[in-house]
Structure formats: C-alpha cells, structure tokens
Structure to design on (526 residues):
DNA sequence: TAGTGGTCTAGACCACCGC
DNA sequence: CGGTGGTCTAGACCACTAT
C-alpha cells in the first residue's frame, strides 16, 4: 500500500521514459542536489535516453521516487527549461524539446573567446603594450583620457589560415598579460584566473569593406566584406574590464547561436 | 523584543535605499506576488529610485516587511538577477548593477521582427505567395520537398531609406498571411495571434558583398558589404515554423545586444 | 563572529488542460 | 472531472564574506 502508485507502464509513444533511469544522488557532495539531478537529466537528454517528446512524469511522483522535495525537483527542471532543453505546460506535463532546436548551445563570440581560444584555432599576439588611453577607449572603459591601458592585437588562425584580427583594450592596472600565456590560454581565461568575475557584455555586430591593411593581414582582397564586432565587457561590480574591436573574414567565419524566446 | 531588529539607518553611500520605497501588493490580483514585486523593483531601478550599487537589504527582513515568505521574495529577486539588473553575492548582499551594463535590454533581430516591425520602420511586401518548397527550404522547415510553403519578400525602410531585404518561408498550412495585415502588424505578431507559441531560434550572422540586384534594391553599390542573417524559428513543440534569410545594409544597420555570462 | 545568500523540506491551494 | 504545473508558506541548516 505504497502512497505512490506507478501506473502500468504506458507504452504510448513519448511517455514516461524516465521510469527506468537510474539516478544517483549524493547528499554528502558539495554539489547541490538540484544540480546533480539537472546534470543527470541533461545527460539523459543528450544521450537520447530521454527522447524528444518524452514526458518527464509529474513533479510530485518524481520527488517521491528521488527522495527529494518538490521545490528541489522543480529547481532542477527549471534550470533545464532555462537552457531550452525542456518545456513545461500546465495541465499537460514536462517534455523534452525536439532535437533540432537544441543543437548549438547558444552564445556568440564572447563564448568563443571565453572557451575555445588557444585551442584548435591558434592565436598570435602581434602587439602587447601599455599606452595612454585615446578618447574612444577611455569612454568605453570608463577611465580618464590618457590613463594607462593595455592594448592587444592578435591574429587568429584556423586550419593555418587567418580568420580574424582582434584588437582589445583593458585597464592596465587590472592584470598582467604576458604574451606567452596569452597565446596558449586565451584572454578571458586569464581574466578569470586573475579573479575577474564577468557579468555581461554589450555587443554590436556589423559589416564593412576591408581596408588595404586588413586585406593583407587576413589574406583577402581590398574591399572584401568583413564581419565586425565591437564589445564592452563588465564585471559583477559594473566596471568595464575590456573593450574589443574585432574583424572577421566573412568568407570563413559567421556568428552562430541560439535565441530562447522570453515568455 | 521583536525577532527582527532593524539596524539604525546606515547612511553610508549605497545602502538600504529600499527602506523608504512604498511597495503595494495585491493578493486578489491574478498577477503572481513575486511578479508584482519584481515589476516594482524593476521600476524603482529604472527610475533611479534604487541607484546602482544600492544594497537591497537582506531577504529575511525584506520578506517580513512585505508580508511575504522568503522563497517568494527570492523568486522576485532571482527574476531580476536573470535579467541582469541585480547581482547577488553570498555574505555581502544583493545590489543594483551599474547603469552602463543594462542599457539595451538584449536580443537581436528576432526581437526586431517580433516587436518593432511595422512601427517607425515601414515594411513593404514585395512578394507573398504559395509555392512548392525547394530542397533547401524543405530541409530547413522539415517538410517534404515540393510541399506547399508561403514565401514572403519584404523591403524594410527606416526614415524613408531601405535598410533590409527580408525573405521568409513558412509552412503554408500554418496560417493565413494577408498582405495588408503583414504591412501593418509584422510577421511575428501575426504568428503569435494565430496561436503559434515560439520557443527558440537558431541564427547565423555573416557578411558578403552585394549582388547587382541587392544593390539596386537597397540603394547601395554592387560589391558593398552587406550583413546577412539566416534563421530557423521553432515553436514549443519543436516544429520549425519559419525560415528567414535576410540581408541588411551594413552602412545603416548593425545587430546590437547584451550577453549575460552564465555563471 | 555576525550577517548574508544558497539550499532544502513538507506541506497547501489554485489555474489550466484534456477527457 | 482528474491530473498537471504555478504559486505560496514557514520554517531549517549550511557556506561564504567581512570585520
């Protein structure tokens, strides 16, 4: 006479695939329970164990089966809804979204710099010095004109061919940027390990024709279409910590990302 | 001997500006309490009543003062953290982010089509008919090649001058798209009022040189740099509902948005 | 050490959906 | 109508930060 009664395995397509999944929760772990659950659900979705359209089963049953409270289960589910992997509908249930929708995780070039820098693509530092801030840079970084800033110019290659020219400015007192580490580690990783916690960035993506210098550097013809990106990044205190001005070879690069619709 | 004791008004800069704010909560309203609170907090931030750097006061006090439970207050605060308006730090408190960080709400061209279509910018429909799907369109929309799709070609102007050429394909059975309504209402609004609930979109932004036809249409020179955007939009069931292929005059248009860093 | 947000529990009632 | 997620409560203990 258990308080929970599992209905006789409904084999209708797209139903309760969760029943047979073995979830393991470690209450001694420092990882929050809702996060452990979310990770395992996400893995099950990624591996196809939880197929698109599958219902997750109602939250009450789920919490009883897992030995968790309902709010904790909801928190796990909510995090996957926020990632776009699950959809909740009142009166219906929670189901896995169809696969086409969730292939590229999201984000744009900030992610690119943040994670994949110095990997498959190689980056060569062309310039790395401290100079007085120009009016434009000073305004973007919120420092006084003439204040010392670090200027960085880098050429990024993929498969041996140029992809982008990156110019970045940072307040000089913020951190040291030895060229060797920059080439192997990537700018954002270095900022993070220097204790700088990023909060957000404002970006503007545009296009224009290549100048003669840009063309030479990127192995394009003068006047070729280039993709441009300007960005100011802020840390959690709201202080601007980086101002970037990048140009990409449009013939070899595009910004790919996913948008979730705010409901 | 009240269980909560309010420390003597600290007047240090950036502290407890919330004390004097009058929040009104209506328990008979269909609007959730956490949402009412979030809206009023957001308004206070937007109007500057809650200045950047201001601490919000701890969640326990706040919930007592408002007559709400702590989880409800947390839910309100969390929604503003997700929007990038507030920052929480354990052991410190919750504070308003600095203003530069939060100027443009976020989103890119999906928002543009979703909200601002048919407003200041005017849109002229150049083509609106039903045709058999090409291989490319069929693949993008997940329909059979040759299935009936609606093709839309529009020219968008701002301040009387061309800004973008928009080409969209939709599964024909999805909805009716009378040209007159399209020009006044915008595509996404029409989809929404037809009961189509959007979930997400995959986008790719690139650049290339203008063809002769595009140049003529957009009042640019042949070979001028254009910004391009390709997008597939999905509804909550994961079904593709729109495939768009847009070109923008780079000299008069850029994608502007804010990224929040996933922590 | 005191104060903050982070996590978690065990209930409750309601609104919406599909049958 | 029964089942689902949506909202809300009133506690509890823990981890981190600053002083």
């Amino acid at each position: 006479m258990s308080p929970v009664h599992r209905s006789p395995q409904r084999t209708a397509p797209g139903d309760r695939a969760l029943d047979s999944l073995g979830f393991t929760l470690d209450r001694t772990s420092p990882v929050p329970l809702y996060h452990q659950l979310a990770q395992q659900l996400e893995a099950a979705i990624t591996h196809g164990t939880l197929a698109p359209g599958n219902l997750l089963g109602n939250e009450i049953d789920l919490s009883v089966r897992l030995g968790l409270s309902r709010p904790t289960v909801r928190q796990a589910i909510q995090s996957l809804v926020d990632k776009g992997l699950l959809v909740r509908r009142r009166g219906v249930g929670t189901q896995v979204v169809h696969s086409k929708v969730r292939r590229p995780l999201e984000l744009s070039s900030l992610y690119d710099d943040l994670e994949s820098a110095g990997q498959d693509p190689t980056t060569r530092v062309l310039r790395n010095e401290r100079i007085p801030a120009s009016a434009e840079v000073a305004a973007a970084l919120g420092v006084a004109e003439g204040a010392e800033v670090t200027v960085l110019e880098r050429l990024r290659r993929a498969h041996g061919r140029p992809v982008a020219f990156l110019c970045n400015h940072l307040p000089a007192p913020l951190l040291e940027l030895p060229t060797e580490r920059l080439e192997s580690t990537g700018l954002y990783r270095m900022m993070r390990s220097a204790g700088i916690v990023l909060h957000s960035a404002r970006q503007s993506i545009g296009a224009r024709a290549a100048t003669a210098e840009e063309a030479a550097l990127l192995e394009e013809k003068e006047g070729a279409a280039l993709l441009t990106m300007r960005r100011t990044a802020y840390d959690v205190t709201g202080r601007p910590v980086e101002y970037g001005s990048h140009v990409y070879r449009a013939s070899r690069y595009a910004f790919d990302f996913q948008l979730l619709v705010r409901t």
